[in-house]
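Sync notes, pocket subgroup
Present: LS, DG
LS reminded everyone that the earlier model was apo-only. Rerun requested with G3I included. Inputs:
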Amino acid sequence: MEKPIVRFIDSSAGARSGHAARRALVAALWLTTSALACAARPAEPAESPSSAPIEVPSLSAKYAPLFPIGAAVDSGSIHTLEALLVRHFNSITTENEMKFESLEPTEGVFDYSTADPMVALAKSHAMKVRGHTLVWHRQTPAWVFQDASGGKAPPELLLSRLRSHIQNVVSHFKGQVYAWDVVNEAILDDGRYRTAEEPEADQRSPWHGILGTSYIAEAFKAAHAADPDAKLFYNEYRNYIPAKRQAVYEMLKQLLADGVPVHGVGLQCHLNIEPSLDPNHHGFHQTVAELEQSIQLYSSLGLEVQVTELDLSVYSPGVKYTPEQFVTLETFSDEMQARQAARYAEFFALFRKHAKVISGVTFWGIADDNTWLSEFSSGRKDFPLLFDVKHEPKKAFYSVMDF
Ligand code: G3I
């Protein structure tokens, strides 16, 4: 994962006018199609407090014949957004509460006090639970990679810690967590393995620095030993980039050839309202066609595919925004909402087309008042989900229901 970085305005007028033209075209197309679809769509409910019953059809019920619809929740939002969660979703992922630093902050001291009640709540509503995530370069305590004197842990020590963590955590949730993101984000956009020498500190992987690529297979083996019934996923972002897609494919192919128990690939799908127009920007590849190729390639290995962290930012990738250009509740216009809805619709059409291999679609949040995209970006608010800050369905909700 990379943080959404707030950048400052790019003065390229050509690029901006290209964007504007494309936006106008997309908006026009949306207005035409949405006008046609309007008759079949339920009326948008009048504004109501967040606790009021939501009188639109259930998202997860509509998708039940195809795949479960999940949401990432944290220990707060699972309560503040419970009404929406229970009505529209039938799967949860804990956003941070099952990460290494949350479950084993100190060596050998496991803390399930936050995650357990979340799993219990999901269970009480017959929801599935995805576990996120066992091995990642982020949100892992420093002690994991250190020896007793604070130096670099030797490989055998790190391996025994990896096994012990996974054994404890996966056994603890056995029978309750049906799928795990076992390894998260091991490959970079250019297709190289993430190493301990990446230029940006928060992009470095000490797992790789100490164990090389062997930590990946070891993690899957340990998870399978702890719960042979759990579905084990490799989870990655920007799989639509051709070089990255291919590298992930090669890695998975080799793992399978080596008999490593991998069952699926998670496509995070942190999307934007439009692809980048710059062929050198990673967002250029953020298209339905590129993502479709990834789904086809991974499933050709016999793997399940899940969309694991879906959201759709209202900002364009690679465009530099000044604080005055940040989208606010007031400037998140009907036109912008319509463009966001149209883009959601395109991707959901793709997911439905491949429902035979897609075994779940999970949003990274529920409503726009609780999204990591607003949390990280120096005051820049984002509005990436299907429900608004008042917990009302947005145009995007209706667009993914419209089939
Ligand atoms: O819990 C502490 C709190 O005690 C403290 O006061 C506060 C001050 O900053 O920080 C809180 O922790 C934050 C945590 O979220 C809970 O809100 C961390 O600083 C913050 O770094 C952390 O961010 C999470 C991020 O992963 C960390 O890398 C986001 O919530 C979470 O949505 C995000 O999720 C990742 C997936 O795991 C992997 N794929 C990308 C995705 C989005 O970045």
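DG: Residues 1, 95-96, 138-139, 184, 268, 309, 372 surround G3I (CB under 6 Å).
LS: Strands lie at 69-73, 91-94, 128-135, 179-184, 231-236, 264-267, 270-272, 304-313, 358-363.
Action: DG to write up.
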